[in-house]
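Hey, sorry to bother you again with one of my protein questions. I've been staring at a protein lately and its backbone has me curious. I owe you a coffee for this, so here goes:
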Amino acid sequence: MSQPTDLATDPVRPWTRPAVLVPVFAVLALVGGFFPSFSIEANLYMIALGGVFAWLGLSGRVPRRPPAPVGRGAAWWLVPALLLAGVELVDFLLGSTDAHPTLSLLADPVLDRYVARAAGYFGWLTVFWGLVRR
């Protein structure tokens, strides 16, 4: 007697489990924390990691999560995001002076410390991984 094919599930890849990904992301974040904030090396590191994540997301090698329903109140999250993007754009166009600093310039004193940079990398990796899984 043959098994019905419509009950088959996707194979579970062990490298996509949190027990594997959290230590890998921690190591990647610790390595990224060694680069000075907003440096060429840090930018190249982020582009390389982002490229790998984009490739994984577009290639279908990562199992997808079902999308969560988005409520009507989710649109209100666009207000602060667009406001911050507008402030960043205007300050960038004005030249990022002391009178008009960009958000990245304001974050620079915090990101001067290794622990803050490594935590920022870890947060970026986990958020981007959530986008890859969608």
Q: What stands out?
A: The mean pLDDT is 83.
